[in-house]
Every structure is written in C-alpha cells, then in structure tokens.
Write a structure and sequence with these properties.
Radius of gyration: 25 Å
Helix content: 25-40%
CATH architecture of the largest domain: 2-Layer Sandwich
Low-confidence stretches: 585-597
Bound molecules: adenosine-5'-triphosphate
Shape: globular
Strand content: 15-25%
Distance between the termini: 48 Å
CATH topology of the largest domain: D-amino Acid Aminotransferase, Chain A, domain 1
CATH superfamily of the largest domain: DNA ligase/mRNA capping enzyme
CATH class of the largest domain: Alpha Beta
Length: 597
C-alpha cells in the first residue's frame, strides 16, 4: 500500500470524534492492507513501531526534525523555525511548507509504500552511537523529500512521537473484529485473548489477515514476549471474599511492591517485565543473576511481587522504597546495597515444555513449588488455604504484621486458570485501608492542569484527572486534585507532563470542565478520596447509575505515588468506579474542606 493511502486514512480519523466512525474507517483500512503490511500499519496508527514491550521509541528531538525538514525542502532551517513559531506545531508547518515546496505539494513524483516508510522510521529510531544524529537527519530528510503535504505532516508527527490519532487498543481490537469476522459477535473474545497472550497487536492483526480467526490458534505464550497480567477484583470485607469463593480460598500475602513477570529462557539471560509490560531487566541485575539458578526447569515464565527489604533488619518495606529502583540506569550497585530487594513468586505460566496458564490455580501453585529452589532473594509468596472468616482474619493480621498491604484471595475452584489481561473474582484483593474509608485508591490519568495561585503562582496548582472507559475508549474526568503534592512533586509536574501537552481538548477525553492546559492521556497518578458521589459535572461512567450524572471523587488527595508502572489504559476504569461506588463504606471523611472536584 502507498503511504499516501495510509495517510489519507489518518486524515479521515483525525476528522472525526465518533468512535463508531473511527472503528469503521480502521476496519476498511485493515481489509485493504496486504497481510504482510498490516502489522506495520497497526503499530504506526498507535504512534509505535513495534509492540510497546520492545521499548523501541520514535520521538526524535524537535530540532533534529526541523533540520531534516529544511534539508528535504532545500530551505534554510531558520525559515522552518520561523514558520513553527507561527503555527505552533511542526506537523502543520511540514504540511504547509511541503505544499509550497519545490514539488508543489504533489511529491517529487517519487511515492513511498507503507513498508518503505516504516523501514526508514525503524532505522531512525534504532540508529545509535557516533554520528547517529546525522544519520537520523539524513534518513528523515530522505523520506520527507518526496512527501506530499499530508504525508509530511504525519511523518513529522510520527517521528516526534506526537501522532495523536486517539486510537486506543480497544478500538483497534474492535476494528480487527469488524474487518476479519464481520457480523460475528463471538469473534471479539478470541481476538482479545490472542492479544492478552501476546501483547502484540501487530501479530494478532497479521494472523487474522492471513488466516482469519483460525490463524489466532497459532499464537502461544513465548519466552521473551510478556503476557498481559491477570488482575484482581476488590471486596469490602473478608466475609464477602469467602462468600464469593464458595467458603474456601488460598489467601496470600499482598506484598506492597512492583509486579514482575520474569522470562527465563533455557539458556541466556532472563528478562523482567513490569505491570505495564515494560522491560526492566536492567534495573534488577541481582534478579537476572539469581533467577536462572533458582528456577530449576527452564524455559519458564513466572510472576511475583518484588519488594524492598531493610538492609538492617531484613523487614519488608513499603512501596515508596522500591520505587527508588524503578527506571534507574545509573548507580545500580549503590542502589542494590541501599535498596535490596526480594522477589515473592506467586504464579507460573510456563515451565519446560509445559504451558501452565491453562491449569487451575492449585495445580499452578504446585508446579511453582516444584520448579523453585528458594533462596533468601527469591521465595514463594506466603500462602494459606483457609475455610473460615476467623482463619482468613488471622492470616490478614499476620500479613499486616509482616509489612504487607493486605491479602490476595485466590480461587481454588475448577476453572481458576490464569486469565491474561482480565480482572475478575478469581483473584480478590483486600487491603488494610478498606476498613477506613473509600475501599481503594484510584489511579487517575492527568488530562488537564490549572494554574496555581498564592504560593503556587506560576506553577500548576491542580490537575484534572480521568478514569478510562474501556467500552468507549474515552478518558472521562472524575476530579480536580490539588492536595497531597509536596513542593518537589509539584515542581516536577510540568516536566513529567511536557510530552503530553495538547493545544486543545484531546479527542479521547470527555470533560465538561475546561482546564488552563490540556494533556493527552499519559501520566497516571494514584489518588485517595473520602467517597465517590454522583455529579452532573464529571463525566466518569456517565449515566451508569443515574441519567445525566457521572462520578466525582470528593476530597481527592495525591498519595505521592506516580503510577509509572501503569499506562493510561491501565488506569482505574469506569466499570471499577461503578463497583467502588456500590461497595463503598459510607462513613464520611474527617478531612477538612479541600479542593473537592
Ligand atoms: P491492579 O494491578 O489490580 O490494576 P494496582 O496496580 O493498583 O491494581 P493493587 O490494587 O494494589 O494494585 O493490587 C494488585 C497488585 O497486587 C498486583 O498487580 C500485584 O502487583 C500485587 N500483588 C502483591 N501480592 C500479590 C500476590 N500474592 N498475588 C498477586 N498479586 C499480588
């Protein structure tokens, strides 16, 4: 397919805010694409080159893109810079300058295919070492040279990492179903399952385009490719937990750390993936070293929670400690000594030639016990099978006393297989805070910010937060949060948010409040609040409980936890808000009047 044709589709996508229309436009595109080009087109439409877990980032610097554009058009760089100052966006500038350029907007008679453009972008993203900047400029100038206005616009936005089509994973999955199993409502589930097992939309699309639904059967667990994590529901108390588990369950300590999915090949180094499937092998060299020694059957995929332990006492430490190790690239040796960690394994998905994700939980735990030769650094998650509320309460108390957050109850019933990417009552989390106020914290996505006043003048003073609605693929606001930030955190907010800045309300954001600055959904913050109430102002789960009303979080307060392990699609969902609302313990908070949403 010609890149110009793909770009024409992007223009159509950009022109609509209606999900159904977007879905249709994408479905038509997927049908037209040759099977060996569909993966590239899928990644590109999300502003990616490869599945996210591979960590290959587009995102070249603005200055580099300006240079390349100037070279391609044969004009001075200053002319490009000047135009950007007026247009405010390099993509717009690229389109306008290309339209008036030597080719008169027609391209130089040289057309590129999707595959050629993709190959060039991949080369740009992966160029490294001496002279790589120069190489990137040359490669980019080369693809820009023959580009028409729209192509130039999207090429620039792609390389800057600013595509902003607002096409989420759910929309792509819907469109794939429409394209390759039209009219078959049951097709959505196997398509989503294939994605949950592979975390790779390009692979799912290719398999569908080549062989239709049967093609998905070829997608299996693979060492080195993360599986989307199974997630837990919440429950207001242990009585409810046991009732839902038919009177008996395996209770485990709920460790307060970082979730880790470890992939240990038969030979060669292990890989570690985070809750949001980013690779973090480099941050935990001690685990990379230890895992192949303690996992006796390989290849293996195991999951666990990595917790920091006090170097002095060996006691478990709260999440804030281990978060110091996250994203670290330097001083690794010092950090290993300052923040030593222990990994508590709680699941196994693959061991030797055997996939265990399909086994029920008791069989998986048994398998995990068999393949692990525990050490101080890598151990089994503490577990006890309980059959009464008394036993469960005793175990919960022990867990808290040992420095954990609460318990994770796991079903022992037939059918308790590992459900990749799904949140269900097969696992139920019950935390200490549940007994105090609102049953859980909420992970909100920043979609806007407000200028501060008084002491906060000149900085952002509060943030507009949204939850994610999976059905509509929209981010819907639920509060304006200004409390709980210390000065240092507030000061770093603009930097954390910079790459998400948006001149207007992003298409996938639903808000009746207009902030001083909009942001595309990207940064996730954990907030607590007094309670959820119905609100005509906020849009979260709008109409789910009462027509014309969404949910607002009263007295929101940032917990200090930047949820870097979550992408916007992993934030709290509208469905979860509805459940929190119906289960919330109604005693009013003792907090003073704050900046309630
Ligand atoms: P979620 O992961 O459900 O979206 P979250 O990231 O906000 O929510 P919590 O609500 O605190 O996290 O609880 C779920 C997390 O608890 C798991 O993703 C995992 O990281 C952690 N965890 C700790 N101990 C266990 C355990 N024994 N079994 C499973 N998960 C555990």
């Amino acid at each position: 397919m010609q890149f110009a044709e793909l770009v024409a589709t992007y223009d159509k996508l950009a022109a609509t805010t209606k999900r159904l229309e977007m879905r249709q436009i994408l479905a038509e595109l997927f049908q037209r694409l040759p099977p060996d080009e569909i993966a590239e087109a899928v990644y590109l439409s999300q502003g990616l080159l490869r599945p996210e877990f591979e960590g290959i980032e587009l995102g070249v610097a603005g200055q580099l893109a300006r240079r390349a554009l100037a070279d391609a058009l044969g004009i001075p760089e200053e002319k490009v810079a000047q135009h950007v100052r007026q247009s405010g966006d390099l993509g717009t500038t690229a389109a306008e300058l290309a339209a008036g350029g030597p080719s008169g907007g027609e391209g130089a008679g040289r057309t590129s295919t999707v595959r050629e453009v993709y190959a060039a972008l991949l080369a740009i993203a992966t160029a490294s070492g001496d002279g790589s900047q120069k190489k990137k400029i040359e490669l980019l100038a080369e693809v820009l040279r023959g580009a028409g206005p729209s192509e130039a616009k999207y090429l620039t936005r792609l390389v800057l990492g600013q595509l902003r089509l607002g096409v989420g994973t759910q929309t792509i999955l819907d469109s794939l179903a429409d394209a390759f199993a039209p009219g078959d409502k049951a097709a959505r589930l196997p398509i989503e399952n294939a994605y949950n097992v592979s975390s790779d939309l390009g692979l799912v699309a290719t398999s569908l385009a080549k062989d239709g639904l049967p093609g998905l059967q070829g997608i299996h667990l693979q060492v080195g490719r993360p599986i989307r994590p199974m997630l837990a529901e919440r429950s207001p108390d242990l009585v409810d937990v046991l009732k839902r588990m038919d009177g008996g369950a395996a209770l485990e300590y709920k460790y307060d750390g970082l979730r880790i999915q470890a992939h240990i090949p038969a030979t060669g180094p292990a890989k570690l993936f985070s809750r949001r499937l980013e690779e973090m092998s480099a941050q935990f060299p001690e685990l990379i070293e230890e895992l192949p020694k303690v996992i006796t059957t390989r290849p293996a995929i195991v999951e666990g929670e990595c917790v920091s332990v006090s170097p002095e006492t060996g006691e478990l430490q709260p999440f804030q400690e281990i978060s110091r190790r996250r994203g670290r690239k330097y001083d690794l040796e010092r950090m290993q000594a300052e923040v030593p960690v222990r990994l508590f394994l709680f699941d196994v998905l693959l061991a030797g030639d055997e996939e265990s994700a399909e086994l029920d939980f008791p069989a998986r735990r048994h398998r995990l016990e068999k393949i692990l030769a525990p050490t101080d650094r890598v151990q089994l998650a503490t577990q006890r099978v309980v059959a009464s509320v008394e036993e469960a309460t005793a175990f919960f108390d022990e867990s808290i006393a040992d420095g954990c957050e609460g318990v994770m109850a796991k079903s022992l019933a037939a059918g308790s297989r590992y459900r990749a990417g799904a949140r269900g009552f097969w696992w139920i989390k019950y935390k200490r805070e549940y007994t105090i106020s609102l049953a859980d914290s909420i992970d909100g996505v920043v979609v806007g910010a407000f200028h501060g006043r008084g002491r906060r003048a000149g900085a952002f003073g509060a943030f507009l937060l949204a939850t994610y609605n999976r059905q509509s693929d929209l981010y819907e606001t639920f509060c304006k949060a200004g409390s709980g930030f210390d000065d240092a955190q507030l000061a770093e907010m603009p930097k954390r948010l910079e790459r998400f800045r948006s001149p207007e309300s992003p298409k996938n954001v639903s808000s009746s409040i207009v902030p001083d600055q909009w942001f595309r959904p990207g940064l996730v913050l954990e907030v607590r609040g007094a309670e959820l109430s119905l609100s005509a102002i906020h849009r979260a789960a709008f109409g789910a409980v009462r027509p014309g009303a969404g949910f607002a979080l009263r007295f929101p307060r940032f917990t200090g936890n930047f949820r870097e392990d979550k992408g916007p699609e992993e934030a709290t969902t509208a469905d979860e808000l509805v459940k929190l609302y119906t289960s919330q313990v109604r005693h009013h908070a003792v907090e003073g009047p704050g900046d309630a949403g």
